[in-house]
Amino acid sequence: MVFEWKDEGKLHRVPKLEPGPPNVYFGDVFSTSTKDADAPNPLTGSFFLLEQIDNRDPAPKYDYDETGVVLKGELHIEDEQGNTAKLLPGDTFFIHRGSTIIFSTPRYAVAYKVGARHQMH
Fold first, then answer.
1. How far lies 29's CA from each of 8, 71, 95, in Å?
2. What are the residues whose beta carbons fall under 8 Å from the beta carbon of 59, sequence distance 6 or more?
3. Cis omega (within 30 of 0) for bond into 19
4. What is the mean predicted confidence (pLDDT) over 46-50?
5. What is the pLDDT of residues 49-62, one digit of tens each?
6. Are 109 and 50 in contact (CB under 8 A)?
7. pLDDT at position 36, please?
8. Labelling 83: which of 25, 37, 57, 101 has CA 20 to 30 A away?
9. May I ask the CATH class of domain 19-115?
10. Domains of the chain: which residue ranges?
11. What's the predicted TM-score (pTM) here?
């Protein structure tokens, strides 16, 4: 296969992250082929939907680099050193491996993220 694509409908069917916080929806869309499971540079693209919640827990420590772009809503990011950003549609971000991040939103946020990892099963 030379390339893959999905229509916008996929954006409206982001699955609940299980197990995961009650406000996080996350679904892999594209990934390095499973037959290349030992590929040295895997890449996986995912849709990420975050809803507002009062009790914000940090995401697990990142063991891979990840970048993304906010598509809808407002995404707040805070790292373990207290750096913060309020991102709006069109804004991009990069999370370095080893980081511990807190994601939050005043209402909701939708992003497309790409990580240097294999697809989650």
1. 12, 15, 19
2. 100, 101, 102, 103
3. yes
4. 96
5. 999 998 877 777 89
6. yes
7. 58
8. 25
9. mainly beta
10. 19-115
11. 0.87
Contacts of 47 by beta carbon, 8 Å cutoff, 6+ apart: 10, 11, 14, 25, 26, 27, 29, 110, 111, 112, 113
Sheet hosting strand 92-95, strand order edge to edge: 24-31, 44-51, 108-115, 66-73, 92-95
**How confident is residue 84, by pLDDT bands cut at 50, 70 and 90?**
very high
CA 86/CA 117 separation, integer angstroms: 25
CB atoms inside a 10 Å sphere around CB 109 = 24
DSSP string, 25-85: EEEEEEES-GGGTT-SS--EEEEEEEE--SSPPPPPPPSS-EEEEEEEE-EEEEETT--EE
CA angle 99, 105, 110 (to 5 degrees): 85
